[in-house]
Amino acid sequence: MRIGIFGRGRLGSAVAALAEAEEGLELAWVADLGDEPGPKVDAVLDASAAAAVGAHLAWALETGTSLVIGATGWDTSVLAPARAVPPRIGVMTSPNFSLSVAFMRRAALAMGRFAAIEGGSSLAIVERHHAMKADAPSGTAKLLAAALAEGCPRYTGWNMGRAEADKVNVASLRVGAEVGYHEIRLETDSDTIVLSHEAATREIFAKGALVALRWIEGRKGLFTFDDLAADLIDPLFAS
C-alpha cells in the first residue's frame, strides 16, 4: 500500500517515521503547506493546518484518493462536496487516532447512561495539553462530551466556565509539554466516578493513523475513526 502525508508537524512526522518501518506500507511522499502532492497513492493522511483541509479534500475528490483527516480545529462544513455526490473515495475524520480514546468514548456513553438513572448526578470533563496546542477544548474533549450527552438526555451539549445544568462542563489547561490527558467525571452527593486516559508519547496517534489508512483503503463514503473502532472494540463489550 502506498501512502502520502500532508503536513510535517508532530503527527505527520511521527507517522512518516513509523511508516518507514511498517511492513506492507510505502511512504511515497510528505507535502508541507504550499508543496505539491506527489504521485498517485492509495490513501493520504491530512495532518496539516485547519485552513488547508478544504483544498486537500478537493484534491482527494479530484484525484480519487482516499483521505484520512487528522488536522484539528477545521470547519466541518468543508465536507459538503463529499456529501453532495455519490462517494468515489473514502474520507475518514478523527480528532484523535488513539484506540484507547475510542474505548474511552464508549465508556463515556455508558457513564452518561448511568448518569441518566442517577437524577442528582453531574457530568464533566478535564483535559490537559501542551502549551503550544492552539484549540481549546480539544477535539477529543468535544468527542467525549458528545458521548456523555448522548447517554444522558438531560444534557444538550458542553460548555466552559460557569456550570450550566444542561451542559457537560469542560475544563482545559494548556501548559508545559504534556502530550494529552482526558478525564471524564460523574459526581453525585455520595460518590464520584473518574475514568482517565493519558498519552505518554505521540506514537500511539501515529500507530492509530496507520491503522486508519489501511482501513480506509477500498472503502467509499464518509467515516469517522469510531467506525474503525467499532470493528475492533465493540466486540469487547458483547456478552
Topology:
Layout: E1 2-6, H1 10-20, E2 26-31, E3 43-46, H2 53-63, E4 66-69, H3 80-84, E5 90-93, H4 99-116, E6 122-129, H5 139-151, E7 157-159, E8 167-174, E9 180-187, E10 192-199, H6 203-216, E11 221-224, H7 225-232
Parallel strand pairs: 1-2, 1-3, 3-4, 4-5, 5-11, 6-8, 7-8
Antiparallel strand pairs: 6-9, 9-10
Helix pairs in contact: 1-6, 4-5
Low-confidence stretches: none
Helical/strand content category: alpha/beta
**CATH class descriptor of the largest domain:** Alpha Beta
Summarize the amount of helix as a percent range. 25-40%
Q: Report mean pLDDT, rounded to a whole number.
A: 93
Number of helices: 7
Largest sheet: 6 strands, parallel
Into which percentage range does the β-strand content fall? 25-35%
What is the total number of structural domains?
A: 2
The ordered string of helix (H) and strand (E) elements is EHEEHEHEHEHEEEEHEH
- Architecture per CATH nomenclature, i.e. the level-2 architecture of the largest domain: 3-Layer(aba) Sandwich
The largest sheet has its strands arranged as 2-1-3-4-5-11
Annotated CATH topology of the largest domain:
Rossmann fold
Rg is 19 Å
CATH superfamily of the largest domain: NAD(P)-binding Rossmann-like Domain
Identify the overall geometry. globular
In total, the number of strands is 11
Termini, distance in Å? 36 Å
